[in-house]
Amino acid sequence: GSGWGHGVPGGAGGVEGRVGAARVSPAARMALAEAMRRNGGQLCLGQYEHTADASALLEKLPLGFIKLAQKYVEDNVPKPLRDELRTICEQAHRKGIQVIGHRVEDQQTAMILRMYGVDYIQGNFVQGANDELAFDFNAELV
Fold first, then answer.
1. Whole-model pTM?
2. DSSP assigned state of 1
3. How many Å apart are CA 15 and CA 27, to the nearest integer?
4. What does R_g of the chain's alpha carbons equal in angstroms?
């Protein structure tokens, strides 16, 4: 084909764009999304917030992922934002889109994000190893 993803296994590549950039050219946006999908790549919409524009893009674009805006992953997120987070996750999951919370710095925030439906957590939080230097990778997010 087109040379996209030459020699790279399907599903291994991805492109992330922001909601504001995605509004610029609907034709170019759809062409990129379709080329990515045909060649096994995934499109990710970053800095995602619950707005009418973002919801419309979520419905129209063949996305694989959305990455949440930072305000949803900070400490002590207020209830209105937690409600938005639940709505975002529900809407994304109905479309088969997975949700990423990034720049998560503590275990409590990670657990809250998982409770509200976030699929993947990225960040800099670690649990200490036990006496045998083993680490329970599942314990933090179960």
1. 0.70
2. -
3. 17
4. 17
Residues 86-98 have pLDDT tens digits of 999 999 999 999 9
- Cβ within 8 Å of residue 59, ≥6 positions away: 95
Question: How does DSSP classify residue 63?
Answer: -
H helices present in the chain, as ranges = 19-22, 26-38, 52-60, 79-94, 107-115
Between the alpha carbon of residue 18 and those of residues 3, 48, 63, 68, the distances in Å are 25, 7, 12, 10
Tell me the per-residue pLDDT of 116-126, one tens digit each, with 9 for 90 and over.
999 999 887 65
CA dihedral 2, 99, 101, 69 (to 10 degrees): 80
pLDDT in tens, 18-49: 555 545 566 766 776 677 667 777 778 888 99
